[in-house]
Amino acid sequence: MTNEEQIKEMVKQQYSKIALQDKETASCSCSSGCCSSEPFSMMTEDYNQLNGYNADADLGLGCGLPTQFAKIKKGDTVIDLGSGAGNDCFVARAETGESGKVIGIDFTPAMIEKARNNAEKRGYNNVEFRQGDIDNMPVSANVADVIVSNCVLNLVPNKKAVFSEIYRVLKAGGHFSISDIVLTGELPEKLKSVAEMYAGCISGAVQKEEYLDYIKQAGFQNIIIQKENPIIVPDDILQNYLSKEEIAECRVNPPIVYSITVYAEKQGCCCSSNDCC
């Protein structure tokens, strides 16, 4: 098994456990691998004001509100990458309406089952969930008007492949809005290899400029950071991995972990024929 396969298997096992938990326990597991007595500012985005929000489908695993910024229109086909229990899919459905379609993709069978149950309970016939990797999507090319994702791409070892897949699946003129975790400095070595911190979206994060460069390399245009927040990991989480001296050194320097919501567009057709696209 390659290192990439090992990371995927580790994340799959962690999120299979999370799928069986309630929101309070699940968000704790994702954000730290253990519960903290201090607020963890990564998981504080409030969905309550968004149409289509269903608390049962919200496991508190996100780091932003990509659907709020995604410019979804009635009739759009929307794909959610790493759809979990279906939260962002159901918010997207409220925007795209009955005439649209929402596809959630997740590689954890337990999450797919949970999301399908949530959709069936609510009679959402235009929302479907497909099991698969987001770096090799079970979706044809040029089918999505909009792609969203919430705190998931950082978990995938081959981020360049994910953005190439996003470009392939989007229609010409389509766009994405993705919330994710990035770094603006070097993460302590002890944190890079810790499974809980990886499944909690931090150890798998890359440098912000590297992340944005992957988007450019895939061919996207009009790249905009729609929102950006620093993430402060509480001391009682860090003490599981770092010494007091190492924690103190982290606190002296500015935050290096950020949640960002980034938007980008796939170029539209340049003529009436699709041949030039």
What's the rounded overall pLDDT mean? 84
* Shape, principal axes of CA atoms: globular
Order of helices and strands: HHHEHEHEEHEHHEHEHHE
CATH class: Alpha Beta
- Percentage beta strand: 15-25%
Rg from alpha-carbon coordinates: 18 Å
Helix amount, in percent? 25-40%
| CA distance, first residue to last residue | 38 Å
What would you give as the CATH superfamily? Vaccinia Virus protein VP39
Number of helices: 11
Task: Compute the number of structural domains.
Answer: 1
The secondary structure category is alpha/beta
Count of β-strands: 8
In CATH, the topology is named Rossmann fold
Biggest sheet layout: 8 strands, mixed
State the CATH architecture: 3-Layer(aba) Sandwich
Which runs of at least 5 residues are low in confidence (pLDDT < 50)? 26-42
